[in-house]
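Hallway conversation turned thread

IA: we were arguing at lunch whether anyone had actually written out 3-keto-5-aminohexanoate cleavage enzyme end to end. Turns out nobody had. So, for the record, here is the sequence (269 residues) and right after it the structure tokens. Reply here if something looks off.
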Amino acid sequence: MNFENKVMINVAPVAATCKDIIPEAIAADVLECYKNGAAMVHLHVRAKDGSLTPDTSLLEETLKLIRKDSDIIIEVSTGGISDLTIEERCAPVPLPLVEACSLNVGSTNLGKGVYVNRPEDVEYCVQQLLKYKKIPEVETFEIGHTNTMFELMQKYDFVKPVLFSVVLGHKGEAPATPKALAMMIDMIPEGAVWGITHSGRKDMGIFAAALGMGAKTVRVGFEDSDYLDPNTQVSTNAPIVKKAADLIRAMDKEVMTPAEARAFFKIGA
């Protein structure tokens, strides 16, 4: 199968500010995103009030509903700014329905907070992902994170290609500009692939730049922004997914299906 011109859409549907986690509503939103081109869904483990928690009960309920009506790839976060221990952050890793997990490889300032990822915690998370055979998506907020992952790739046997997610736009880290993006992807190890996440996004300009530079994934969704365009905020994620899919096709590329994404990233192999 030729994947050269194919791009995966990852939807992160739940805003960090959400104060009412309703599995049925999340699953329904994700299903519409799936119908509009999303091949992966990214979720955090949250309590009813939206706070991060090691209790996976609501997440598991949500995942069962999502899996009931779609074959979308399920990715769960092992991060987020909180007081959770790394063991608590990795609570969802063993879950059978979880296929991929975010991997945070370094600390960074995010707005007024500090996102702490200690070296020993990073190694613990890596070991858990490898133990349970979950595919990592490496979150890179600055070039030092990319270099850290390069060093981890020399030590551990990751399934290839390794996926790096270049995260731009948070206050306190790299801006969402083509210049910053070019600098970040210049550090991606040979043989790895990368995608783009834009926090605080109001348009899709950096997505267009990323696609032109060779991005294999585009992440959209309320976790990053609820803007469809600079003047329009939406109440569900599907219109944003559709716009991302339209952009991919407008650039003469194809939107990956979940089956294609599983084959490309060797999920479940």
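OS: looked through it. The longest strand covers residues 6-11.
IA: good, adding that to the notes. The chain has one domain: 6-265.
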